[in-house]
Amino acid sequence: MMNNAVVVDDLVVHRGGHEVLRHLSFSIAAGQVTGLLGPSGCGKSTLMRAIVGVQRLTSGSVQVLGAEAGSAPLRDRFGYVTQDVSVYDDLTVGENLAFFASVLGAGRDDVARAVAAVDLGPQVDQVVGNLSGGQRSRASLAVALLGEPELLVLDEPTVGLDPVLRRDLWGLFHRIADGGAAVLVSSHVMDEAERCDRLLLMRDGVFIADDTPDAIRARTGVDDIEQAFLALVDEAGAA
Ligand SMILES: Nc1ncnc2c1ncn2[C@@H]1O[C@H](COP(=O)(O)OP(=O)(O)OP(=O)(O)O)[C@@H](O)[C@H]1O
């Protein structure tokens, strides 16, 4: 039986007077990297906010790890990284992690594991304000890895990173999923689609495809996911 970390049923969200998420129903399996891809403004961040419980729902439901999204028992069972850096600029990498570990009740070993996972060992004593953009994003990611979360929700974690770092981070996402966690990663860069076990292609608050990259390519008859996305948009328009 598929072990679902997230179950969304008929979810509708309005923001600024618009229907941003339109009757979404789907689930996210543990042990997989699920990619949420679509153009800017299609609703990816809003959907992630709904899953981590910080978005008011208009209707429908979001269950996370068997509980209602946003409910207290979930607090230390998932990690969430937004596009805004969430670490303190005036503390070092190590101090930031020690602070968040104490909030979560995580141990020193866990801090060392998180630092190593994002490859920030050499920067551990550096003040975050002096790090490069990519290093700062990795520091935020390290915080999300504390406590070995069962669900990791990452909103465009690879924006602004160089190709080598991007490849390494995708490797890390897969290792986390192989360890049994559910990993949900958003991106508006279609070439990242190849790296996902499953793709949710989103447009205007609905999914226009939900399948493996191979199956999406086979269905559209094109090799490139960006071209496949455009073919699916045309197909949806023609329907
Ligand atoms: N605070 C807000 N108030 C009103 N409308 C909002 C707010 N935040 C987002 N929206 C609208 O909701 C829609 C979806 O936005 P969302 O941030 O979820 O998209 P996205 O796919 O994550 O985009 P991006 O890739 O640019 O981050 C957009 O039309 C946006 O204008």
From TrEMBL:
InterPro entries the record matches: AAA+_ATPase (IPR003593), ABC_transporter-like_ATP-bd (IPR003439), ABC_transporter-like_CS (IPR017871), P-loop_NTPase (IPR027417)
Alphabetical UniProt keywords: ATP-binding, Nucleotide-binding
CDD domains: ABC_DR_subfamily_A (cd03230)
UniProt entry tagged with the keyword NAD: no
Gene Ontology molecular-function annotations: ATP binding
PROSITE patterns, per the entry: ABC_TRANSPORTER_1, ABC_TRANSPORTER_2
Residues annotated as domain ABC transporter: 6-229
PANTHER family listed in its UniProt record: ABC TRANSPORTER G FAMILY MEMBER 20 ISOFORM X1, ATP-BINDING CASSETTE, SUB-FAMILY H, MEMBER 1
Protein name: ABC transporter ATP-binding protein
